[in-house]
Amino acid sequence: MSALELIVLGTASAVPTRQRNHNGYFVRWGAQGYLFDPGEGTQQQMSRAGLSAHNLTQVCITHFHGDHCLGLPGVIQRIARDGVPHPVEVAYPAAGEEYFQRLRRASEFQPTDVIKARPLEGPSPAPFGDPPITALPLRHSIPVYGYRIEEPVKTHMRADALAARGVAGPSVGELKAKGTLVTSAGEVLALADYSYRERGRSFAIVMDTGVCAGAAALAKGVDMLLIEATYLSSESALAAKYRHLTARQAARIAAEAGVRKLVLTHFSERYTAQGFERFAAEAAEEFSGDIVIANDLDRIGFPAR
């Protein structure tokens, strides 16, 4: 079982099809389990994917259109029914507070106190979680937030080079903490000369939006971008009208942001089970990296370092 992977639970947009469930995306990140946009049928899709309520530590709702949230009542009730002991935080746009409260208590059940609400407000809500999650507003017909998970940059010490200078043990920690170290021989060592920095892993999800600064900022340099591609360019007028992205627009965002792996999803019901190679072909005209057309129950690995 991978320690870092995307498990796709649904890839349809407003109307599910025989092949595509409503939205739902689970990201396994070590001991953390992030569920994004649980649409209708998410409980069943989780079962098919071998996931349980106990795998969930965070739920993130991008917005309160039904295909992105109508599975939330079942997920919350399953968390209660299965006796999940740890806190499960639910992040969502504060502008949809009334919808969150309705979904949280959509029917009679024995409630649980492990559900923790995190309403998000403004253009730059405070990051939350570990690793930190950043939320930024997108451009749609109602308030929408996209999300980005990113591990902090790690500093690795070059132990062999330090040992050659007679530096070991607590002195290594001192160099890392202070940035410089004076050795017993009076030599001044700089941290940059005896270490290297490694970017943390990163993931972003961009749903239901037109082209906007928030989408570009969330996507910048991520290892994996999961992004809506509701339409092909032949339906650009519809995309503009309903503030959605075409496959070409999504790929251009990825290319300009320097994304490593692009995952396209949230396809309009107008497209049949066949023909999704058109989405890949259109995206490839803008983005030269790894392109994945998401299908329900796919398990998609992060790119190797």
UniProtKB/TrEMBL annotation:
UniProt-listed Enzyme Commission number(s): 3.1.26.11
Annotated catalysed reactions: Endonucleolytic cleavage of RNA, removing extra 3' nucleotides from tRNA precursor, generating 3' termini of tRNAs. A 3'-hydroxy group is left at the tRNA terminus and a 5'-phosphoryl group is left at the trailer molecule
**Residue sites binding Zn(2+) 1 per the record:** 63, 65, 140, 208
Answer whether the UniProt record assigns the keyword Chloroplast to this protein.
no
**Cofactor section:** Zn(2+)
Q: What does this protein do?
A: Zinc phosphodiesterase, which displays some tRNA 3'-processing endonuclease activity. Probably involved in tRNA maturation, by removing a 3'-trailer from precursor tRNA.
The record's similarity note reads: Belongs to the RNase Z family.
What is the name of the protein in this document?
Answer: Ribonuclease Z
Q: Which organism is it from?
A: Hoyosella subflava (strain DSM 45089 / JCM 17490 / NBRC 109087 / DQS3-9A1)
Q: Which gene encodes it?
A: rnz
